[in-house]
Write a structure and sequence with these properties.
Helices cover 66% and strands 2% of the residues. The protein is mainly alpha-helical and 185 residues long. It has one domain (6-175): Transmembrane di-heme cytochromes, Chain C (Fumarate Reductase Cytochrome B subunit, Up-down Bundle), CATH 1.20.950.20. Helix 1 (12-35) packs antiparallel against helix 2 and helix 2 crosses helix 3 (82-113). Residues 1-5 have low confidence and may be disordered.
């Protein structure tokens, strides 16, 4: 298997933000699916607050990641068919849009439903939209739909990375995999 040179690797900050966001999104999706099945209880309310905090954290991390990305060019693309390159760029663009759309839709729903978001129990956020029960009912399914779409796109992203690693053996996954120490000789 070929290993990309340092010029083909993402920078350590880009790698750290990638994996931090990946873990946060996976945990938030899992928590979201779990908590919606619970009966109304103090435990469910606590989990909803944690889910909101995760969403706002994801929103902030996404903003940082986008700002970083706008100021730092990614490494050169590996050789691959044009359709794969187009699919990769389209998938990344859609993921970035959903990194913002999912938490913003959740924040809008929470605001419209009259449930304030107090991040980590300390920082109250302003309402994103005015409290309006009909608006809340209209927004609520969109938060879920967008979250499912994000989960699907993330799974496609992971499947493509696995395909490149095990079938193409082109070193693509090594570009974003964290290194504990420099292995170059």
């Amino acid at each position: 298997m070929s290993h990309p040179s340092n010029s083909l690797r993402y920078s350590p900050p880009a790698i750290a933000m990638h994996w931090l966001l990946a873990v946060a999104i996976a945990m938030s999706l899992a928590l979201g699916w779990y908590m919606t099945e619970l009966p109304v209880s103090p435990q469910r309310l606590k989990l909803y607050n944690w889910h909101k905090w995760a969403g706002i954290t994801i929103l902030g991390l996404s903003a940082l990641r986008l700002l970083w990305r706008l100021g730092h060019r990614p490494p050169a693309d590996l050789p691959m068919p044009a359709w794969q390159r187009a699919a990769a760029h389209g998938t990344h663009t859609l993921m970035y849009l959903l990194f913002f759309a999912v938490p913003l839709a959740g924040w809008a729903y929470s605001s419209a439903a009259g449930f304030p978001i107090v991040v980590y129990g300390v920082l109250p956020l302003p309402d994103w939209v005015p409290a309006d029960k009909a608006l809340a009912e209209a927004i609520k399914p969109w938060h879920g739909r967008l979250a499912y779409l994000l989960a699907f796109v993330v799974l496609a992203h992971v499947a493509a990375a696995i395909k490149h690693h095990f079938i193409d053996r082109d070193g693509l996954i090594d570009r974003m995999w964290p290194r504990l120490k420099d292995t170059a000789s």
